[in-house]
Amino acid sequence: MHDVAVIAWSDVVAPAAGALLTGAAALPAALLGAPGWIVLPMGVAGACVAVVGRRVRALTAEVAKADRAAHERADQLAAASHDLRSPLAMVSAAAELLLTEGPGPLTPTQQRFLRTVVDQSAHAVQIADDNLVQARLEAGAYELRRTMTDLSALVRETVTGLRPLAQRRDQHIITQLPAVPVRALVDAPLLRRAVVNLATNAMRFTTYGGLIVLRVLDNETSVVICVTDDGIGMSREERERLFRPFVSGSTLGDGTGLGLVLTRRIAEAHGGRILVDTSPRRGTTMMLRLPRERA
């Protein structure tokens, strides 16, 4: 026979033990950040439930308000991205026309300046689009559309699209891909954006004439897209700051860091992660790893 006298108010007990005391109620001790159940007088328990109820309603209202704000931010960024695209496209088209030397011959210095205009216009569009996708992911307004995708083909197509930019920087961008397709269930456009971000980040931190290599690895537990450069590399401190917004990996970089923040979010949305292998003056390898069970 249990001695009910050993059970005191505010003791943490099993739920049934609370019934051993007349006028008592056992509430989840999680209300106080503890495991188990806590014994309280009926009146106190009722007051606790009322307080918790009010707090839950207040938190629900705050979450709803934050959700509305996130959706409004995504809508605003969508409008801003659209408004930016047209003038940037016109600037880029004009610079590319001048580079053909149809309107007249250019000096090497003029050609270099115009290539910078083209490259930075494309980079500005990419930043605007990255901000838009980031806002939609944060707002829960982006629904992944997964399809079975050949990652080798995706990487090959991405490199083909980036090759003109690499050539303007006198850089070499190549692929090392398996002989057989490596398929995974992914949102192909979103994953392509992540690969573009990793590759363009490597290009920005690689000197003119440098080499960027994209590989796809396939093993029993995961599939991995690797982007390796022979650039300036990063210290441990720089690597720790790498995925913070508005922080670039080095003083040599000219980015906001938002592209890598988005890339990590894309990886996490697919159940994966981003790994970094780097050291100063020895280049960097970024690895986008997707778990095999998702493939």
TrEMBL record:
Any idea of its EC number?
2.7.13.3
GO terms for cellular component:
plasma membrane
- Write down the SUPFAM superfamilies for this protein, in alphabetical order: ATPase domain of HSP90 chaperone/DNA topoisomerase II/histidine kinase (SSF55874), Homodimeric domain of signal transducing histidine kinase (SSF47384)
- Localization per Swiss-Prot or TrEMBL: Cell membrane
The EC class name is: transferase
Q: Which InterPro entries match?
A: HATPase_C_sf, HATPase_dom, His_kinase_dom, HisK_dim/P_dom, HisK_dim/P_sf, Sensor_HK_Regulatory, Sig_transdc_His_kin-like_C
State the reactions this protein catalyses. Answer: ATP + protein L-histidine = ADP + protein N-phospho-L-histidine
Membrane-traversing stretches: 12-31, 37-56
User: Which SMART domains does the protein's record reference?
Assistant: HATPase_c (SM00387), HisKA (SM00388)
- Domain called Histidine kinase: residue spans: 79-294
**Keyword annotations:** Kinase, Membrane, Phosphoprotein, Transferase, Transmembrane, Transmembrane helix, Two-component regulatory system
Q: Which domain of life is it from?
A: Bacteria
Which molecular function GO terms apply here?
phosphorelay sensor kinase activity
* Name listed for the protein in its UniProt record: histidine kinase
User: Mind giving the lineage of the organism this protein is from?
Assistant: Bacteria, Bacillati, Actinomycetota, Actinomycetes, Pseudonocardiales
